[in-house]
Amino acid sequence: MPLEYLSVSDDVTRLLGRFAADIRGALPLVALWAHGSLAFGDFVPGRSDLDLVALTGAPVTGAQRTELHGLHETLIADEPLAAGLHCAYVVSGEQADPSRTHLTWAHGELFDRPVSQVTRRELGDGGACLFGPAPETVIPAVTDTELAAYVRADLRDYWYPRTSRADLWLRDIWVDLGILTLARAHVTLREGRLITKREALDVASAMGAPAEVVGDICDRRYRTARPLSAQQRARRGELASTYIRAGIDRTLGD
């Protein structure tokens, strides 16, 4: 899916075009792809992340890493929407191993992490090609078995231990991602497909997620968020983490 077919605002189109041009000036760029809400029609400007994967023709050098850091910081200073732009830099020839880590810009810093099986499936199922060859011609396909194994491990090894960390669940991002990840995992493990965050809200409600927590997520993502007191935030966090912990037990036990 080329950039021109994405249903996004002029601001997003301009940002993506500038980013692609900046990256091509800094690295031997082979391809640039979008996945997540941007590619699957659930993108909300200013609230959704811009999830990208860049395929480079050679490993990023120390000097290029410094240049990339400055490039991202300048982009954020110039373009408000760039604060949510995340990009994994994958070296051509290293994309086949899902356990391999790749230089990634997210949350205002550069670090190394793998490109997950969920991201790989998103790219194969309909990732948007902003530059270069289409992702499904470059990234190996993810089987249903591989996807299910990743989802189960993510719930068991990442999310479940964190449900006991009360401090995490005071933050919006943990409440949002925790509730939505569980709902999306539920569908993936039963039907072998990925769903959007908007669809996941409906699934979460059907699964018995606390209505006030689902409503809070929906308000912040699609409507007007209301401020929460410290007491309300603590209650929301307890409801979310308790529900997610029990939900993971049920999901992994099925």
What is the structure about, briefly put?
This protein has 254 residues and is an alpha+beta fold. Helix content is 51%, strand content 15%. It has helices spanning 10-26, 62-78, 117-126, 144-162, 172-191, 197-206, 211-222, 230-253; strands at residues 29-35, 50-56, 85-91, 101-106, 109-114, 128-131.
Overview of this protein structure:
The protein is an alpha+beta fold. The protein contains eight helices and six strands, in the order αββαβββαβααααα. The chain has a six-stranded mixed sheet, sandwiched between helices.
Along the chain, the helix and strand elements come as HEEHEEEHEHHHHH
| C-alpha end-to-end distance | 36 Å
Give the second-level CATH assignment, the architecture of the largest domain.
Answer: 2-Layer Sandwich
Structural class by helix and strand composition:
alpha+beta
How is the largest sheet built, in terms of strand order?
Answer: 5-4-3-2-1-6
Measured as a percent range, the helix fraction is: 40-55%
What average pLDDT do the residues reach?
94
Q: Total number of β-strand segments?
A: 6
Task: Return the CATH class of the largest domain.
Answer: Alpha Beta
* Percent of sequence in beta strands: 5-15%
Count of discrete domains: 2
Question: CATH topology of the largest domain, which one?
Answer: Beta Polymerase, domain 2
